[in-house]
Design goal:
globular; alpha/beta; cytoplasm; 3 helices; two-stranded antiparallel sheet
C-alpha cells in the first residue's frame, strides 16, 4: 500500500459539483492499494497516518501527530500512485489492485482512523473527483507499506 500524506489547513473533495467530503486542519491521505494488501497493511498504514509527528502546534513545544492535535483526515482512493512509468510515455497500472479489491481496503483505512477517534472524510471510490486543498508547510510524506511476505 502506498499513501501520500499532505498536511493541510483545509481540504475538500467534489464529485459532480457536490462536496462529498471536507476537513479542517489535518491530513489529506491519498491511498493506493496494490495486489496482496490486506489487514496487516491497513493496520500499519492507519498507525502511520495517525501517529506520524507532522504538526507543531503554535505555542506548544515539540511535534505532534494528527491524532494528538485533534486534526482530521481526508482519505481519497488513488490507484495512480502505483503507476509504472519506466517504459515509454504511457503509464502501466498493473500494480494497482482492481476496484473490487481496493475499495474495501481503502474503506478499512478510513474505518481504522475513525476507530482511533480521528475525524475522517472520504472521497467517492471510482468517481472522477476534484480534490482541493490548502497545503500547510508544505509537508508531503510518502508512506510505503509493502504487502506482507514481499521483499521490502
Amino acid at each position: 500500500m502506498r499513501t501520500v500524506l499532505q498536511r493541510v489547513s483545509s481540504a475538500q473533495v467534489r464529485v459532480d459539483d457536490e462536496v462529498v467530503g471536507a476537513i479542517g486542519p489535518g491530513l489529506v491521505a491519498l491511498v493506493g492499494v496494490t495486489h496482496g494488501d490486506g489487514p496487516d497493511e491497513v493496520a500499519t498504514t492507519v498507525r502511520k497516518i495517525a501517529e506520524l509527528r507532522l504538526f507543531t502546534p503554535e505555542g506548544e513545544g515539540g511535534e505532534r501527530s494528527v491524532e494528538e492535535t485533534g486534526g482530521e483526515v481526508l482519505v481519497v482512493s488513488q490507484f495512480t500512485l502505483h503507476a509504472d512509468v519506466r517504459k515509454g510515455r504511457r503509464p502501466s497500472w498493473g500494480a494497482a489492485a482492481p476496484g473490487p479489491v481496493a475499495e474495501p481496503v481503502v474503506a478499512a483505512v478510513a474505518d481504522g482512523l475513525r476507530e482511533r477517534g480521528i475525524g475522517v472524510a472520504t472521497g467517492r471510490f471510482g468517481a472522477m473527483m476534484e480534490v482541493a486543498l490548502v497545503g500547510d508547510g508544505p509537508v508531503t510524506i510518502v508512506v510505503d507499506v509493502p504487502p506482507v511476505g514481499s521483499p521490502a
